[in-house]
Amino acid sequence: MYKLSAFADEIGSDVGEQIKVLKDNGVSSIELRSAEGTGVLKLTREQIKEIKKQADDNGIGFSAVGSPLGKYPLDGDFQAHLDDLERALEYASLLEAPYIRMFSFFIPEDKSPEECRTQVVDWLGRMVEKAENTEIVLAHENEKHIYGDTGERCKDLYQSIRSPSFTGIFDFANYVQCGEDPYNDCWQLVKNDITYFHIKDARSADGTVVPAGRGDGKIEEILGEAFESGFDNFLTLEPHLSVAESNYGKTTPDLFATAVNALNDVLKRVH
């Protein structure tokens, strides 16, 4: 069986409100990206423990730490980045979250991805080595303007860094927004390296994010194949259906319900 999770900070900054809306919509886990308007890696250890307690009291688990790791310049201080990784690993352990979401570094405007490949693979490899000392898995999300933004470059990473502590997340909308065909250009290349999905759809004409199944992300087709192959992990909602005042709030409780209902409609057809 698949498991529903969500970037609950899109509902609002208050953890209590996040948990209530998740329960109302049948979502059982959180990919913790922020709380009270503060990014997860800037929260204190005590805040993480309190969030965990609130979630436990309501039967809500954690699928991942939704960290910004890897959304980082290649000319930055890598040791400082490794310090952030250590904090993310600690927080994932405290939350009993199996994954840390991460990325593969911003490509400088004056360089091509190919020119940066060696450094990207080296830095990611050193991060994975840190994770190998724990039970936590680093899960790479395809994202615009980082090295792993296309199906081919994501496949390159998954082939170059072979470790049980490194895996892939498939984000449908991000591939669409990079001009990729999510099924032909991406899924066909990386499907054996994907552990879970971020549920976010988009229209290829203008990149607008829309509810699952209403864009060009090929969500129904791809999830259908995944289920046929035995997929039984997290489907993590990242709706992005409106822009709120908070940096992290990009949905509302009502629009979150719209996102859940759209995904459930897709699931009824394919599962």
Brief description of this entry?
It is built from nine helices and twelve strands. It has about 270 residues and is α/β, with parallel strands linked by helices.
Question: Mind sketching the topology for me?
Answer:
Layout (H helix, E strand, L loop, with lengths): L2 E4 L8 H10 L4 E4 L1 E2 L2 E2 L5 H13 L3 E5 L12 H18 L3 E4 L10 H19 L5 E5 L9 H10 L5 E6 H6 L4 H9 L3 E6 L1 E2 L6 E2 L8 H10 L5 E4 L15 H18 L1
Parallel strand pairs: 1-2, 1-12, 2-5, 5-6, 6-7, 7-8, 8-9, 9-12
Antiparallel strand pairs: 3-4, 10-11
Helix pairs in contact: 3-4, 5-7, 8-9
Give me the secondary-structure category: alpha/beta
At the fourth CATH level, what is the homologous superfamily? Divalent-metal-dependent TIM barrel enzymes
User: How many domains in all?
Assistant: 1
Write down the secondary-structure element order: EHEEEHEHEHEHEHHEEEHEH
Distance between the termini: 9 Å
If you consult CATH, what is the topology? Answer: TIM Barrel
Number of strands: 12
What Rg is obtained from the alpha carbons, in whole angstroms?
17 Å
Q: In the CATH hierarchy, what is the architecture at level 2? A: Alpha-Beta Barrel
Task: Characterize the largest beta sheet: strand count, sense, and whether it forms a barrel.
Answer: 8 strands, parallel, barrel
